[in-house]
Amino acid sequence: MSTSQLSDLISRPSLHRRPIFRQCHPTSVFLTPPKKNKTKTLKSQKKFKIYQSLVDKQSPLKNPTVDMNKLVEFLYEDLPHLFDDQGINRMAYDDYVKFRDPITKHDSIDGYLFNIAMLNQLFRPNFQLHWAKQTGPYEITTRWTMVMKFVLLPWKPELVFTGTSVMGVNPKTNKFNSHVDYWDSIRNNDYFSLEGLVEVIKQLRIYKTPDLETPSYQILRRTAAYEVRKYDPFIVVETEGDNLAGNRGFNDVAGYIFGKNATTEKIPMTTPVFTQAFDAENSKVSIQIVLPSDKSLSSLPAPSKEGISLRKTEGGIAAAIKFSGKPTDDVVREKEKQLRSSLIRDGLKPRSDCMLARYNDPGRTWKFIMRNEVLIWLEDFKLD
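The line above is the sequence of Soul heme-binding family protein; the predicted structure tokens follow.
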């Protein structure tokens, strides 16, 4: 998954939700509390000490002035270490801190760090910080994505959560004293949220994704109805198709990667197979196979069959809805209608074209675990 910078997507977050609690993670399991990590990076602790000494010098008053800009800069450096060996810097938090998310709560920095260690063992989380900014006199809001793989289940389902965290600052200590999470995928973010628990359970279902290379993308937002992804550029080999759920032309593009090209080169298989309708009427449809990311247009052999072409897509922002079962034309059109309606309802700007992504061999995969997606490219998306 790409971790490309999102500076072009940053805008001010909505300020209509303001509890003063937080916890950044979606589940909690009883484990033996881990020992304190005595190998935490001294460099990170030193930086926070320097920050505090600078703040103390800013004012002769008993309660020093809080430099919120410095705290924002600190979060950009510290939060990406949430689940790595370095870890976050506990010196930046009061001992008594209120952490909350929809299904977890802790009232101390020790409890919060224990929960992070537990999540690391069970889910191998990948935490991505999109932005952090001051949103109140003693308040900073961050936007993030967390992707977790539940390693205890045989199919190792991938759980995705996106949202914002509101972090309160204690002006007497210049440290964080509250932290509350809001998930984009639920409405009731209060603790304890049954809706939040259902959201976790729902993501444990089985989808079979082949162990093949896929186009690289970063999940920016996950709602109850769809994901918003930022795709890196990728190259496809394509030919004319008949309709979104059709297979006409597949053997021709598959033949290209199996060696039916100008140099008889065999190219590794990837997933998914895309079918793209370029307009709302389906008057022009192409079926596409994504080529490996280490290939370029100049390094690929020319197609040897008429009607086959290579094309580089520039990537961009797309919304995706996932579903299982056989993707018939009626099913695909209904999913497209649902997705487009949800995007317009949420104030986004979907383009008129759409794509079907099929990840599985229908002859070798049970219908109920098939992974299919309908994607629609978006215009003027802002990650607020």
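Note on the example: Helices lie at 42-56, 68-78, 109-123, 194-202, 250-257, 329-345. The domain at 68-204 is CATH 3.10.450.50 (Nuclear Transport Factor 2; Chain: A,).
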